[in-house]
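Board notes (copied after class):
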Amino acid sequence: VQLVESGGGLVQPGGSLRLSCAASEFTFSSWDMRWYRQAPGKERELVAGATRGGSIYYADSVKGRLTISRDNVKNTLYLQMNNLKSEDTAVYYCWASLGYWGQGTQVTVSS
């Protein structure tokens, strides 16, 4: 199983980023997928999830600003991040419900 995140970087407050998580070596469409994040000195927290059945859910702190989606043909999970705030600064990880994590991608929101 491989989960490879990309798309992180430095962005100013109010800016946007799109994270991707490329999945391989398993049947992507058969598993629930999630984005988590971990800020310095804090525990890893759930950001958003997309079930294999098409259900979507978000942490309250990101509702209306972040959008999760999945492409079961490209085997890729996405996180569109708009109106970013400094408190969104963290390492973002994708997770597959068969029990695997990606290596993470850093998102830094700063002026």
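Comment from the instructor: The longest strand covers residues 17-24. The CA atoms of residues 17 and 55 lie 23 Å apart.
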